Amino acid sequence: MNSPPETPPAADQQAGRTAVSDADLLNRHIAGDPQAFSEIVKRHRDRMWAVALRTLGDPDEAADAVQDAFVSAYRKAESFRGEAAVTTWLHRIVVNACLDRMRRKSVRPVADDELIEAAERETPVPDQTTEREVSMEVSSALKLLPADQRAALVLVDMMGYSVEDAAQVLQVPSGTVKSRCARGRAKLVPILSHLRNRSDLSRVSSAKGAELRDG
Amino acid sequence: MTGDTHYDLEILAELAEGLLDAATALQVREHLAICDPCGESLADLAAVREMLSGTPTPAMPMGVALRIDRALAAEAESLRGGGVGLVEAPAWDDIMRDAPWETETPSLPEPEPVRLGVVGDDGTVVPVTPARRRRAATRRRWAMPAAAAGVAAAVIGATVVTTGILSASGGPDTNPMIGVQADAAPPKYQLTDSNWNYTDQELSGSLLGYIGPVNAGGTTESSKIDQCVRQVAAKVGTAPFAVDQGFYNGQEANVMVFWHNVSKNQVLVHVVGPECDQVREPALARWK
């Protein structure tokens, strides 16, 4: 769950198949190997899907964005510069495709009180909060955040990438990623606090809180 | 800052990220040591992080994966010069405009059928042919309407089989399409993947607009769905002429359409889930 590894473990385990790096595959693709790109897709589609789904909060939109992104990467393979990892490059294309979709839909930033109202309106307060419900509520809560904060939180908090990796994907300084995450989390607290109060996820790291408090 | 005054969540979140300058951070920590409400706010922030990281990230649904494979196969086909012509590019220039690898873009109107590149010492890839291409081609229609999707599936079917791009179904890579063609006489039906979320009402009306025209003889298939089609076909007593992979009331579902009475334009619709379980009573509908 840390930085995007260049080659996922699954690819190594494939019997009789020496692990080929993503960069090699990309070069083969550019050289005309018809299989190479679909191997890249196979390796990374789940993560790309997760990023797009969490960023856009809508499966149809996410499917369009990921498809756009993979076709775009297919075409633009030769403009990939070797200094970044292929995964970072792919993430960047996917995130840009998502942000582009959000911009086109011109999601306006929402004021805090609107957020809380929306959360109350949209939450029917079931007796038991299942994992699925939490997941859906997290999704709809994320949708209320400005696009840049959402993208940062998806990469860092949900996908578990390091701030530095997220900064590379988003092409902003690490400090910017941190502050977008901080602002996004602050906005989510009032929206999600009711969930925390009644779900198992409330195993809050008070240890972490104490650690921060005590320096 | 003591007594009734508290720090807001944003400051506390910035503290947690180490974004505050040393003096401010110290101040806030001193306050936290004596202020329970602020301590709770800090715990709330940590809880949000945990909730986000605890949210499961689902794998890409097979329907989406296949759809991407098809889009890439179509792309490969059009690069080869064949040009399916149905698929239209989204606004790549918009999507990619902020990307740093976007260099100056002289617009070259003609697509290059073959792309070559050499790998530099540092591992970067230097295109031999002029780098930018197909500006003119980028405005073709992309969002395939359901009607066109079926035709595209038929047109690119051959490519898909030969290149094994459909191997997304997960077998070993050595020979992904093994068995598919060897299979004696698979039922001939058109398999589309509209990802449309059907409602009961839509399934009772005209289906042509959702599934698209049937292309004679054109079938693509994936073994799992094929198996399910056979199963349902055995029950119905005839083979479907169209199968669409989509959703029914939000659930992943395959819609199978059987001719009930061609002259009366009546079709029988079966809707099954991913495990071939019936999710809707078979019912009649119109085709056109």
UniProtKB/TrEMBL annotation, chain A:
<dbReference type="InterPro" id="IPR036388">
    <property type="entry name" value="WH-like_DNA-bd_sf"/>
</dbReference>
<dbReference type="GO" id="GO:0003677">
    <property type="term" value="F:DNA binding"/>
</dbReference>
<dbReference type="InterPro" id="IPR013325">
    <property type="entry name" value="RNA_pol_sigma_r2"/>
</dbReference>
<dbReference type="GO" id="GO:0006352">
    <property type="term" value="P:DNA-templated transcription initiation"/>
</dbReference>
<dbReference type="Pfam" id="PF08281">
    <property type="entry name" value="Sigma70_r4_2"/>
</dbReference>
<dbReference type="GO" id="GO:0016987">
    <property type="term" value="F:sigma factor activity"/>
</dbReference>
<dbReference type="InterPro" id="IPR007627">
    <property type="entry name" value="RNA_pol_sigma70_r2"/>
</dbReference>
<dbReference type="InterPro" id="IPR039425">
    <property type="entry name" value="RNA_pol_sigma-70-like"/>
</dbReference>
<dbReference type="InterPro" id="IPR013249">
    <property type="entry name" value="RNA_pol_sigma70_r4_t2"/>
</dbReference>
<keyword id="KW-0238">DNA-binding</keyword>
<keyword id="KW-0804">Transcription</keyword>
<protein>
    <submittedName>
        <fullName>RNA polymerase sigma factor SigM</fullName>
    </submittedName>
</protein>
<keyword id="KW-0731">Sigma factor</keyword>
<feature type="domain" description="RNA polymerase sigma factor 70 region 4 type 2">
    <location>
        <begin position="136"/>
        <end position="188"/>
    </location>
</feature>
<keyword id="KW-0805">Transcription regulation</keyword>
<comment type="similarity">
    <text>Belongs to the sigma-70 factor family. ECF subfamily.</text>
</comment>
<feature type="domain" description="RNA polymerase sigma-70 region 2">
    <location>
        <begin position="40"/>
        <end position="106"/>
    </location>
</feature>
<dbReference type="InterPro" id="IPR014284">
    <property type="entry name" value="RNA_pol_sigma-70_dom"/>
</dbReference>
<dbReference type="Pfam" id="PF04542">
    <property type="entry name" value="Sigma70_r2"/>
</dbReference>
<dbReference type="InterPro" id="IPR013324">
    <property type="entry name" value="RNA_pol_sigma_r3/r4-like"/>
</dbReference>
UniProtKB/TrEMBL annotation, chain B:
<keyword id="KW-0805">Transcription regulation</keyword>
<keyword id="KW-0804">Transcription</keyword>
<feature type="domain" description="Putative zinc-finger">
    <location>
        <begin position="12"/>
        <end position="38"/>
    </location>
</feature>
<keyword id="KW-1133">Transmembrane helix</keyword>
<dbReference type="Pfam" id="PF13490">
    <property type="entry name" value="zf-HC2"/>
</dbReference>
<protein>
    <recommendedName>
        <fullName>Putative zinc-finger domain-containing protein</fullName>
    </recommendedName>
</protein>
<keyword id="KW-0472">Membrane</keyword>
<dbReference type="InterPro" id="IPR041916">
    <property type="entry name" value="Anti_sigma_zinc_sf"/>
</dbReference>
<keyword id="KW-0812">Transmembrane</keyword>
<dbReference type="InterPro" id="IPR027383">
    <property type="entry name" value="Znf_put"/>
</dbReference>
<feature type="transmembrane region" description="Helical">
    <location>
        <begin position="142"/>
        <end position="166"/>
    </location>
</feature>
